[in-house]
Design goal:
Number of helices: 8
Distance between the termini: 60 Å
CATH topology of the largest domain: Beta-Lactamase
CATH class of the largest domain: Alpha Beta
CATH architecture of the largest domain: 2-Layer Sandwich
Strand order of the largest sheet: 1-4-3-2
Oligomer: single chain
Length: about 300
Amino acid sequence: MLRNLRLKQKFTVLLVVILLIGVSLSGLTLSFVLRQNARREVANTALILMETMSSVRNYTNTQVNPELKDKLTKTFLPQTIPAYSAREVFENLRNKREYKDFFYKEATLNPTNLRNKADAFETRIIEDFKKQQKSELTGFRSLPGGDIFYIARPLAVTEKSCLQCHSTVDVAPPSMIDRYGAANGFGWKLNEIIGAQIISVPADRVIQKANKSSFTVIGIVSIVFLAVIVLVNILLNRQIIRPLKRITRVAEEVSTGHMEVDFDQVSNDEIGHLARAFKRMKLSLEMAMNRLRYPANSNRNPEESF
């Protein structure tokens, strides 16, 4: 097929093939890199939110609880529970557009409030924290509503004040037992990992963020490639195609006996050398034709002509 194409068309086809291959390879590479960057960016946002929730927990535990300690024996106030405060503050954050897709849970193996009960997947994460002593886990999880990206950190009992409600039933505030019962949330030990802080976001957010960046970069690369193709075609037309056409036209006229035309050497590159070679060939042809026309003169001594 390429045999029947002109030189300019062959170069255009070659450049388009290079464009398609280059965009495909760069697209795959960029997709992977940008997905990793998007995942890292979402993870960084999740970590900031997690640090914020940890600060809320610490504030509730160190400043709110001591002030309301005496009242807890009569009336249980969920606002004094660090997990409750963190959850409520996070729900307020989700009212903002940039955080609406994030979800926060303090998944616990044996919680007082069953809404914090860890499911099978979250239980495995907590067990991994216990066995491997890792400080952070990230990954993707499949749910009926779609895949999610999560980041988790271990949740340990670091304050003795937590054991006032979660060590044994007999020392727990009666008002808390009246609200949640005595079946769950007890037997905790100091420095024991009892759960995990987990922040999750739909995986589509990570993928869409990466795809949006990929389309932008690939679009820019494609525009650059197309601009290069146009510029190469213009340069090819001016520096090669046009000079070759001129040489071809002159050669055709010479072949029909029009010796008055001449090959102009307009450059010192390969095209110029070709024009010079054709010019020498034309002179040789003229000499040969003169010898055929005047054979007697060809045998004369050149000095006799003077």
